Amino acid sequence: MDILLGTTNRQKAAYFQQLLGRDDLRLLTLRDVGIDKIPDEDGATPMENAMRKAKWYGQFADRVISEDSGLYFLDLPLDDSRQPGLFIRRAADGHEMTDEEMIEHYAGLVQSLGGRSVACYLDGYAVCRDGKVYGYMEQLEQQRRTASFLMLSKPHHDRHPGWPLDSLSADLDGRYWMDLNEDGRMAEMELRQAAKDRLIAFLYDKLGIVE
């Protein structure tokens, strides 16, 4: 079964391939199929944006997965102009930041907040199957409880292409994600496993994947 992802990011394709855990599924990026048109992303939430993308790319494939994320610093009010929200990669002048530009920008923002700040991602997902669109998103309060992390102003020397802010991210004890040993990574994974299981169930159901 071929599934189109609403992204050009091969790392995200690998992530969803691992998430779905099926060798009989082929995850294709927009670049793989030669799609260079992008829809407007003017929704109010990550889920709304994901659904808009899924609907748009649904004209090119029978099954589509789209995802959008918002980044929120819990030390700032939600309506603070410094909140990245849905525009994690957008610079002040409107251009889309590169990975290194993002690291520099957010390191500076966190420095202005004292050198470390608690943050969380709010992720929205959507599936388009045979023209019908379905959305899924965890609630912000739930994310606060289960997926909060520290963002630090000093970047780690390692990089994770496609996920540049991993170089600034740490667990709540201040240990860089890049430095966590197997036990530390397992503890982080366990906190997120229940949410991941709910996402997998949504994707299997709406994509029509038979277990």
Automatic annotation (TrEMBL):
Q: Does the keyword Ribosomal protein apply?
A: no
Enumerate the Gene Ontology biological process terms. Answer: nucleoside triphosphate catabolic process
Q: Where is the signal peptide?
A: none
Looking up InterPro entries in the UniProt record yields: EF_Hand_1_Ca_BS, ITPase-like_fam, RdgB/HAM1
Gene Ontology terms for molecular function: nucleoside triphosphate diphosphatase activity
PROSITE patterns reported for this sequence: EF_HAND_1 (PS00018)
Keywords of the record? Hydrolase
* The keyword Hydrolase belongs to this UniProt entry's keyword annotation: yes
Pfam families recorded? Ham1p_like (PF01725)
> In its UniProt entry, what is this protein called?
Non-canonical purine NTP pyrophosphatase
Source species, please? Answer: Candidatus Faecivivens stercoripullorum
